Amino acid sequence: MSGTDWLGAFGLLLVIEGLLPFAAPALWRDAFRRAIELTDGQLRFIGAASMLGGLFVLMWLK
To answer: What is the DSSP letter of 37?
Structure first.
């Protein structure tokens, strides 16, 4: 991957991350409030599942 690809991927990440707060700020705020109440173990599991899901998508695209 070139530097341009990384910048493009980062830009797409920012767009996707900004969709929910832009489209439904109250829903985003409620989801964020609930996420704060999760334990460290629960947050780690969600993070690991998200990373594995992303890896599978990247492998599928190749």
So the answer is: T
Taking the C-alpha atoms of residue 43 and residue 36, their distance in angstroms, rounded to an integer, is 9
Place of tokens 């947050």: 43
Digitized pLDDT (tens) for each residue of the chain, 62 residues in all: 678 888 999 999 999 999 999 999 999 999 999 999 999 999 999 999 999 999 999 899 88
Terminal CA-to-CA distance of the chain, rounded, Å?
Answer: 12
The pLDDT value given to residue 3: 80
List the structure tokens of 31: 């989801």
Angle between helices 25-36 and 3-23 (to 10 degrees): 100
The structural domains of the chain, with segments of one domain joined by +, span 24-62
